[in-house]
């Protein structure tokens, strides 16, 4: 058993799962990440980075499953072959654009996270380490061109 | 408090922190991720993806700090402006190349993780979602060209 303490929380216009963008591409939504005061010292020099990796908990997910029909398909896949939230440990990753920092509040763009999600970590996204081009994307490759799948339809509870 | 259960563990040639590559760039190291049998069903269709996001615990870190001197610099920065392992919640992210899957064993390349690290999640890395180019990288920008910083020197305990 591994025990974590949230370091902050997401402040988002998305209050319900249905309607929340399912990936950061295409979302221009602005929002905030509140870092709890006791961790604020850890933000020093973060403002120099344009892009953040944010780890948070899918806190509204009550059930997990090892096989799911992901938003981007209509047949089942193993949960680890998807980005579905209904996964063991329920950790989400979002890559967000950092606009500016005001005290303990990060102002971000491209938000695709539900309001109130507990934040577990913030790391700088660095193209030299994190940008991989031309990945092979299994079942997803034939779906990526399909524009019908852009928002959470509320299928995961 | 958020409680997690490891879904597997890293099998790596790196047995000690000192000498472990500090980022995936430049590491060609092969290793394995053992997914525990009870989660194996979740791996279905993962083999179609070339690249994985692996979340794990920095299990050998005993102390965390909000300000650190990261491997890539010689002055302190806030922990969230670094990828240092000595962070709250001690979650690491590695982007690994998936070679093949044999039952519950993922054979991967570019490994930069210590042997025995508990694995928390596996997600497909998808260029269309996850590849961001030309990030602005704060204090790190002037260090990225410096080739003297490639391995853990054992500074974090």
Secondary-structure map:
The structure is a homodimer of 157-residue chains.
Chain A: E1 2-4, E2 8-11, E3 31-35, E4 51-57, E5 67-68, E6 77-78, E7 91-102, E8 105-109, E9 118-124, H1 127-130
Antiparallel strand pairs in A: 2-3, 2-9, 3-8, 4-7, 4-9, 5-6, 7-8
Write up what this structure looks like:
2 copies of one chain form a homodimer. Chain A has 157 residues and is mainly β. Chain A has a domain at 28-126: YaeB-like (Elongation Factor Tu (Ef-tu), domain 3). In chain A, 3% of the residues lie in helices and 30% in strands. Chain A contains 1 helix and 9 strands, in the order E-E-E-E-E-E-E-E-E-H. In chain A, the strands form 2 sheets. A 6-stranded antiparallel beta barrel of chain A has the order 2-3-8-7-4-9. Chain A has a two-stranded antiparallel ribbon with strand order 5-6. Chains A and B meet through strand 1, strand 4, strand 6, strand 7 and strand 9 of A and strand 1, strand 4, strand 6, strand 7 and strand 9 of B.
